[in-house]
Amino acid sequence: MSGPAPFRYPTPEETDLPPYPDQPDCCNGGCAVCVLEGWPEEVQAWKEKVEEIRAKRAIKTDP
């Protein structure tokens, strides 16, 4: 009987860059929180996640 699969950190390539919102997603109504304005923050969070993954993988794979 085999146990659970060992934990494996995802590779940066396995994380998806947040897609840029399509123009139809924006209503051009001057919303306080526009979907187009939130995208840079999503990309920054993604970059931080990728760097965290890379750091954890480096620790895990260093001899």
List the helices and strands and how they pair.
Blueprint (H helix, E strand, L loop, with lengths): L34 H27 L2
Question: How would you sum up this structure, described in words?
Answer:
By secondary structure, the chain is mostly helical. Helix content is 43%, strand content 0%. It has a domain of 34 residues. The two termini are 30 Å apart.
How much of the polypeptide forms β-strand, as a percent range? under 5%
Radius of gyration: 18 Å
Mean pLDDT: 78
The largest sheet is: none
- Helix share bin: 40-55%
Order of helices and strands: H
**End-to-end separation:** 30 Å
Q: Globular, elongated, flat, extended or rod-shaped: what is the shape? A: elongated
Short description:
The protein is mostly helical and 63 residues long. The protein has one helix at residues 35-61.
Task: Looking at this protein, list some descriptive labels.
1 helix, 63 residues, single chain, mainly alpha, 0% strand
